[in-house]
Specification:
single chain; alpha+beta; eight-stranded mixed beta sheet; seven-stranded mixed beta sheet; rod-shaped; disordered C terminus
């Protein structure tokens, strides 16, 4: 397995472990900050979903500021509350739910009047659970479905005189770290007792169906009510306050209460007076009366339109927390480019859209846990990728610079575009320039290695400059010589002309350089150049270390021309084939002599050779060079 695949596998495994750890930590209440984030994201999703018309089955009779101004006090006197309840009962509601804690005694006449009134219709009264701490944990040895319920210290129940005429339900709601109620517990327990919640008691009475407590949900008759793992009912708000039908209790005292708002409906009596009732922030309101939060839960239970956040949804949350970060990291590892980033962004947008779509259709997928599972690994992996990419870029730049020392720029670009360039031999026309120093072998026996190295370095630099300036490719330095190829990466019409220009430039520059050397060295050196044009076979040779070269008769002739030049007291020998291909018409600063019909070693045919000399001669060239320097 390749190193990259191993790294990718390790990254995916670590990402999966991170996602599983985040989900498990949040599920076990160790990452409380995610609750605040989830509450904020839930508010956003609720606002995006917008206001929805609630099922018209609940009417809130609000004890509001108008009622308090009329009576002059709060809480409402029991006699006045009895009048409110009596008027509502006369309009024949399904059930009357009183979201007020009737736990303290008041005037005897008022209490007796209210008790008698409660006996006239189907009633549900509110109780409260008192917990010894702000949050409760489940005992380690607890078993059974009710073990997930936090244990209350005690219940605040209505006075016995009231409770004997009504059913009782616990009215507590659960608020997140943002203060907004996200769910309403359906069951509460003390050490020896389990009580139904106020909304569940009201819904059971209104539907007149038996309640069954299953291990992970509730049953109202034959209808399943999905709940969270602790039997809490997730709620989502229909809109701002008074979205659920609300009437003021003052309309009862004024005699203006509409019978249609009460008859055959669930009626919830609760306080919405400023400073007197409980208020909660919601996505649509900074302050919503608690009675409307409770009424929302009742509506969900009766209409069956609540949002689902049950065991199956939690399994989906766990899968998203593990698989989404793995997919994002995998995409970034799959393509270390803009394509990988675009693919990862597309997957993230798709997940966000799916999460929002599910929420708008009644399924509450946790967004905070998935984000916490996905963002850190993706950021870390992307950072590592950028760091590794920077290191790789530096490596490639260094490699490119190294390659530039051995290959012509055009060949570098061609190899970058086509790594298989010349993997198969190619036959074509090309121009070949050979250059070689004379007397170098004898000189190397007399001077030290440092001076010898400096001499070769300067010589190679002159060859490199001439080749680059004319667009040739040095296929290799042969110690005190070099071969320059014109025709790669592809044959060009001016290959021969550029080779001729390069050879003349080499002639002059090497001549000047030798003239400027110390006499003890320069006097021992000479040079010879051979140039030919014709068909070659270009190919890549070698296995682990490849190099580009040319072979064929043209290469052999160009190499042997250096001998012909030396034999005829010349330094630059050219074939008529090259001159014709270069369309050469003479050089005002040079002298072309010939032709010479001769044979070259290793070849049976005759070659027509011309010799080029500088018109000014070496001494004048050296003088010009000294003036320039």
């Amino acid at each position: 397995m390749s190193s990259r695949r191993v790294q990718m596998l390790v990254a995916l495994v670590l990402t999966a472990l991170w996602g599983a750890g985040i989900y498990a930590g949040h599920a076990n209440a160790h990452l409380r900050f995610l609750d605040r984030l989830e509450a904020t994201l839930t508010d956003w999703r609720t606002q995006v979903r917008g206001v929805q018309a609630p099922p018209d089955i609940v009417t809130i009779v609000a004890i509001d500021d108008t009622v308090v101004k009329r009576g002059g006090s709060y809480p409402l006197p029991r006699a006045d509350l009895a009048r409110v309840v009596d008027t509502i009962v006369q309009f024949r509601p399904k059930v009357v739910a009183i979201d007020l804690l009737l736990v303290d005694r008041s005037a005897a006449i008022g209490d007796a009047t209210l008790a008698n009134t409660l006996a006239t219709g189907p009633m549900v009264l509110a109780a409260a659970a008192i917990f010894p701490a702000a949050s409760e944990t489940v005992a380690p040895g607890s078993e059974g479905p009710l073990a997930a319920l936090p244990q209350a210290e005690r219940f605040l129940l209505p006075l016995p005189a009231f409770a004997e005429h009504a059913e009782v339900g616990v009215v507590n709601v659960a608020t997140g770290q943002s203060g907004s109620p996200l769910s309403v517990p359906m069951l509460f327990r003390t050490r020896d007792k389990v009580e139904l919640s106020f909304p569940l008691r009201v819904a059971t009475r209104a539907l007149d169906k038996p309640l069954t407590i299953a291990p992970d949900h509730l049953m109202l008759g034959d209808r399943a009510v999905p709940t969270d793992t602790d039997f809490a009912l997730p709620i989502t708000y229909y809109g701002p306050r008074r979205t659920i039908r609300t009437v003021s209790a003052q309309s009862i005292f004024d005699g203006t209460l509409d019978r249609a708002a009460i008859e055959n409906r669930i009626v919830v009596i609760g306080a919405s007076v400023a400073g007197g009732g409980d208020f909660y922030p919601t996505p649509f309101d900074s302050l919503m009366p608690g009675v409307e939060v409770v009424s929302t839960a009742i509506t969900h239970l009766v209409a069956g339109d609540g949002i689902v956040r049950d065991r199956k949804v939690h399994i989906a949350d766990a899968l998203f927390a593990i698989l989404l970060p793995m997919l994002l990291v995998g995409l970034l590892a799959w393509r270390r480019s803009a394509l990988g980033l675009v693919a990862a962004a597309a997957v993230t947008i798709a997940w966000a859209s799916l999460n929002l779509f599910a929420f708008m259709h009644g399924i509450w997928l946790n967004a905070a846990t998935t984000l916490a599972a996905a963002v850190p690994p993706v950021v870390i992996f992307a950072g590592v990728q950028l760091w590794a990419g920077g290191r790789r870029t530096q490596y490639l730049v260094a490699k490119s610079r190294s390659l530039a020392q051995f290959q012509a720029p055009a060949v570098q670009e061609w190899l970058a575009r086509d790594p298989n360039f010349l993997s198969k031999p190619v036959r074509q026309d090309a121009a070949i320039v050979f250059i070689d120093l004379s007397g170098f072998t004898a000189l190397s026996e007399r001077i030290g290695p440092d001076a010898l190295r400096d001499l070769l370095k300067a010589f190679h630099a002159l060859i490199d400059k001439a080749a680059v300036d004319c667009g040739g490719m040095i296929t290799g330095f042969l110690g005190d010589g070099a071969m320059i190829l014109f025709g790669l990466p592809g044959a060009m019409p001016d290959d021969a002309a550029r080779a001729l220009k390069c050879s003349i430039h080499l002639h002059r520059s090497i001549e000047r350089w030798i003239a400027l050397l110390p006499p003890a060295i320069g006097g021992q050196l000479g040079f010879k150049i051979g140039v030919h044009f014709g068909p070659i076979v270009a190919s890549r040779l070698g296995e682990s270390h490849q190099h580009i070269t040319a072979t064929g008769d043209t290469v052999n002739v160009a190499s042997r021309l250096m001998e012909v030049a030396a034999q005829n007291d010349a330094r630059l020998a050219l074939t008529d084939t090259l001159l014709d291909a270069a369309d050469f018409h003479g050089d005002p600063d040079g002298v072309l002599s010939g032709p010479l019909l001769t044979q070259v070693r290793g070849r049976s045919g005759v070659v027509t050779v011309w010799f080029w000399r500088d018109r000014n001669g070496p001494s004048q060239a050296a003088a010009k060079a000294e003036m320039i320097n």
